[in-house]
């Protein structure tokens, strides 16, 4: 027999209200569990608790080989976005474009409405970076590293630990974004989301919105993933459902990929069932 036939498998949907678990035992039989997702008086995490109850395992990391895989979809990032409970985030963007993401696409759902209500932004602070690259990659304005360091230090001292870096034409010509990220990490920012790494989109608004969402949600998501991974132990393979419907390793799971993690699992299941 292969290891898969001798080990447990767990499939988990960690929702905002309930956490549902389906487990396959080594003999092929299926077991299910359902717990409140948040019940701190009884357990620290519903997904981990569900696994322990089914395995009748004691607290602490699981033994190597006991569990073949844990696959999880979660609405942790979805709920943080809806409830606006992400990490306070600063936006670093090319000087002159500080309002670009707020202006957005200038969409007019109601053409004759005179008072336009703009959506609330996920970032709370803007740092305009003195730099500019042209569409063909030529340096129109060199990166002012000294001013960038000063302005980013002020943002850090104001309490911001998450930073989204979005520079004009940075999707293709990455030199200035890379250097700015180095400066931010030297200052001490814990989360630095760089647009050409997060989503190399040619359009500034789409790229910017995605990068800001990644910076805003990744710290919350990382804290959850690290806690679950730590409780289960390094010997337990852990994967998460992405918004795309594909799985990724726990250490590669990030905010931009997690917004529709839970719903995507439902769509995949529906398609498979149908």
Structure, described:
With 274 residues, the chain is of the alpha/beta class. The chain folds into 2 domains: 3-81 and 222-273, Nucleotidyltransferase, domain 5 (2-Layer Sandwich); 86-221, no CATH class. It has helices at residues 3-6, 46-55, 76-82, 100-103, 145-157, 175-187, 195-198, 204-232, 261-273; strands at 8-14, 18-24, 30-36, 67-74, 89-94, 123-129, 132-133, 139-141, 162-166, 191-194, 238-241, 247-249. A 6-stranded mixed beta sheet has the order 3-2-1-4-11-12. Helix 3 (76-82) crosses helix 8. The longest helix has 29 residues, at 204-232.
**What share of residues is helical?**
25-40%
Low-confidence stretches: none
Percent strand: 15-25%
Task: Give the overall shape.
Answer: elongated
Secondary structure: number of strands: 12
Radius of gyration over all CA atoms, rounded: 22 Å
Structural class: alpha/beta
> In which order are the strands of the major sheet placed?
3-2-1-4-11-12
Q: Sketch the major β-sheet.
A: 6 strands, mixed
First-to-last CA distance:
31 Å
Number of domains: 2
The average pLDDT score comes to 94
Q: How many helices?
A: 9
Order of helices and strands: HEEEHEHEHEEEHEHEHHEEH
Give a short summary of the structure.
With about 270 residues, the protein is α/β, with parallel strands linked by helices. It contains nine helices and twelve strands.
